[in-house]
Amino acid sequence: MRVIVFVDYENIWTGLFEQGYELTPENLMESIQNYAKKENYTLSAIYLYANFDREEFWRTQTSFEKTLVFTRHVYGKNNYASTENRKNAADMELILEAQEILLTRTFTFDMVLLLTGDGDFLPLVRKIRAWGKEVKIIGVDGSIHQNLSHFCD
User: Fold this and answer.
1) 153 exposure class (CB count in 10 Å sphere: 0-12, 13-18, 19+)
2) What is the pLDDT of residues 31-40, one digit of tens each?
3) Which terminus in the chain has less CB density within 10 A, N or C?
């Protein structure tokens, strides 16, 4: 089964950090690859979204790109004049790109693995399923929104 992976990195990283675990790019990639191998999935692409300006994520973007992950640097600020954080900026970027791929390259994958626990992704899950694709959510135990728990593995 051909799988595309979308990673809400800040959500996964924060959930693990709150449980005392320090997630590294190498750990995450190894976990994704092991899961795919165990389930007999072929990874078509991995897209990862984060604000790499965060001190905790400095230098991680290069580590991910060396493993052929498509990283998306999502800026946390609106612009230089405004210092307000863009709420849910990474979530919005992930949703928009996932829908673009769903509409333009639907023949390139059979399933979407969504690494997050954020309930804001429920409309995306519904849209992917409406297009006849499978969806599995992988999140941090104890940090997964109840609306997504039905789709968890």
Assistant:
1) exposed
2) 999 999 999 9
3) C
Chain centroid to Cα 3, Å, comes to: 13
β-sheet bridge partners, residue 136: 113
Q: What is the pTM of this model?
A: 0.89
Say how many C-beta atoms besides its own lie within 10 A of residue 3's C-beta.
21
Q: How far apart are CA 67 and CA 33, in angstroms?
A: 11
113, 122, 127, 125: which is closest to 145 by C-alpha? Answer: 122
Q: Which residue has the higher pLDDT, 146 or 77?
A: 146
Helix-strand-coil split of the chain, %, nearest 5: 45, 20, 35
Distance CA 153, CA 146 (A): 13
